[in-house]
Specification:
The protein is 22% helix and 28% strand. By secondary structure, the chain is α+β, with helices and mostly antiparallel strands. The chain has 3 domains: 331 residues, TIM Barrel (Alpha-Beta Barrel); 74 residues, Golgi alpha-mannosidase II (Immunoglobulin-like), CATH 2.60.40; 128 residues, Sandwich (Jelly Rolls). It is globular. The structure holds alpha-D-glucopyranose.
């Protein structure tokens, strides 16, 4: 019996070694966890999109957007001359902003390498500047102890062997082009990047025109890890297939409930975001930017869902970073200087949702509650918190305890008057043990009505999210709602079967200009917005009636048409049992 067990165990060991050796990159969990730890704890990274396209000032897709022939684009490749590039200043800005790592474009879709590459003349050495950029930047980052990673576009609009050409392109023959030979080139450049600059991360992109096999995703992933076992690789080397690569990369939106592997296990993820609204590379025409307040809250929200924020800047062609970006980064840094303890090294919230506009992050036996919408009664309720509280205090005032009490399954904390951070005030809650929480479901009140405020909703969205929660005087609303792909969704239960009147409480000054739809279990009720006195004070309107059985339901509100760039600020939906 004993020997059989040993034999089995030995066979298992041999098998598992072979298995892990031949099936690398199958999700973060199957690999040594330690190499991911710094990234998991970092929470906040800086993305830098910079290249010859910055000279045009129409973001990084400029060559495609303006359909610039390669011959003409050569002007920019020849004349790129960022005389103001100061890598120490970039590293210092990152430090000031509280950023823990940097990812920069080594080669974007246009194919130009901003590093000294032995495999092409289409690089910074042949440009007017004539000096390497990534070497000095790597040195500055090393001095500042900031891990540096490289973005690398597989798609290449310049290399003669890359296929396909752009649809509009003429005069560049595909005769003799060989994608395999292009992949040899790309592979050489990747090896070169690792050998020369020792990056912490390779951040792939532009992977959508070929299969994993054609792009040698598995072979190159394995090769790169062989060269540097601690290297992290994003999911885009593998066409963003769920479970592949070290982390997922949702772009310009926050996944409503975080990111998971196909088998349901937690997955490391990093949401990349622009600070402005259009594009990643320098855009001289850009006038709209997320506010620093919104960016701080976005960082908190992402971290509360277990992710990292990779926030982008597109430096100017001369190497300076525009004031719009610098100001926002500095304000984030200020907030993080006081509140960083509640961000770095924390894990996702233990509450599925909080009954007020706030988010939770966790470190061991401490909860950090980030209050964004100050409740009118000055109290916050932590629903279903089974673990007892030892003490509660403001992160900025650990000496002065806050009062708390247990109320059934919940814990209620009385907030201090006066001392609020306009973006998010952090309350520390020290627990008696590791946090244990009972899931809180949305259910009917005593009179059978169901309240669905936006802070209890999952905000569903995809690339290009615009809507976010905001707090106006005393009301939390879904604001900036102008993308039809963004919508709130609630799962709730009703007490008994019957008809309900649907009420919508929202603020909108532009009556009739937006069409919307309340969808309950697939039944859709169409409506148009009516006017309320101001965009800050919501008013309640009747939407229609719906019959519902007892039990669990799903309700969404979707915008169907919008003429004013702004649908409404939605406060809540209420279902009232019809008489
Ligand atoms: C998209 C864009 C690319 C940008 C990237 C950042 O793939 O095509 O320009 O660099 O997103 O995530």
């Amino acid at each position: 019996m004993k020997t059989r067990t040993i034999v089995f165990f030995a066979a298992f060991l041999v098998f598992s070694t072979i298995f892990t050796a031949t099936v690398p990159l199958l999700g973060a969990q199957s690999r040594t966890p330690d190499r991911l730890q710094w990234f998991r704890e970092a929470k906040f990274g800086l993305f830098i999109h910079w290249g010859v396209y910055s000279m045009i000032g129409r973001e990084e897709w400029a060559r495609q957007i303006l359909q610039i022939p390669l011959k003409e684009y050569q002007y920019y490749a020849d004349n790129f001359n960022p005389v103001e590039f100061d890598p120490d200043a970039w590293a210092a800005l990152a430090k000031d902003a509280g950023v823990k790592y940097i990812i920069i474009t080594s080669k974007h879709h246009d194919g130009f390498s901003i590093f000294d590459s032995a495999y092409t003349d289409y690089d910074v050495m042949k440009a007017k500047y004539g000096k390497d950029i990534l070497g000095p930047l790597a040195a500055s980052c090393r001095k500042a102890a900031i891990p540096l990673g490289f973005y690398y576009s597989i798609m290449d609009w310049h290399h003669p062997d890359y296929l396909p050409r752009r649809g509009w392109e003429t005069g560049r023959s595909v005769k003799g082009a060989d994608f395999g030979r292009y992949m040899d080139f790309a592979t050489n450049q990747l090896k070169e990047l690792v050998t020369k600059y020792d990056p912490a991360v390779l951040w792939f992109d532009g992977e959508w025109e070929h299969s994993n096999e054609e792009q040698r995703a598995f072979a190159n992933g394995k090769m790169l890890l062989g060269m540097k076992p601690a290297l992290l690789i994003n999911d885009r080397l593998f066409k963003r297939e769920p479970g592949y690569g070290d982390f997922g990369t949702p772009e310009n939106y926050v996944p409503a409930t975080g990111v998971r592997n196909p088998d349901g296990t937690e997955r490391l993820w990093e949401a990349c975001y622009t600070m402005n609204w259009n594009g990643w590379g320098y855009n001289r025409y850009e006038t709209e930017f997320h506010s620093s307040s919104q960016l701080i809250r976005q960082l908190i929200e992402i971290v509360s869902k277990g992710g990292n924020l990779l926030l982008n800047v597109g430096p100017q062609p001369d190497g300076r970073i525009q004031a719009d970006f610098v100001a926002r980064l500095k304000r984030m840094g200020e907030w993080l200087k006081t509140n960083g303890e509640a961000i770095y090294g924390t894990t996702a919230s233990v509450f599925e949702r909080l009954p007020f506009f706030g988010r939770c992050t966790v470190k061991g036996m401490k909860l950090y509650v980030h209050v964004m919408g100050w409740p009118a009664d000055g109290r916050i309720r932590l629903p279903g918190l089974k673990t007892d509280v030892k003490k509660a205090y403001l992160l900025t005032g650990p000496g002065r305890p806050l009062t708390f009490k247990r109320a059934g399954k919940d814990v209620i904390i009385t907030l201090p008057g006066g001392e609020r951070d306009p973006d998010a005030t952090v309350i520390v809650i020290e627990l008696q043990g590791p946090p244990e929480v009972e899931p809180n479901k949305i259910g009917p009140e005593k009179d059978g009505r169901v309240e669905l405020p936006v802070y209890l909703a999952d905000i569903q969205s995809e690339m290009g999210q615009r809507a976010y929660l905001d707090h106006f005087y005393r009301t939390t609303m879904l604001a900036n709602w102008q993308n039809v792909n963004d919508y709130p969704e609630w799962v709730f239960t009703t007490g008994k079967a019957g008809a309900f009147e649907i009420l919508a409480s929202y603020a909108s000054m532009w009556g009739g200009q937006a069409g919307y739809e309340v969808e309950v279990d697939g039944q859709k009720i169409a409506a148009r917005t009516e006017s309320s006195p101001s965009v800050y004070f919501p008013k309640t309107f009747s939407v229609g009636k719906v019959a519902l059985g007892a039990g669990e339901h799903k309700l969404r509100v979707r915008i169907t048409s919008i003429t004013n760039n702004h649908a409404m600020n939605l406060e809540k939906i209420v279902l009232v049992p019809a008489k």
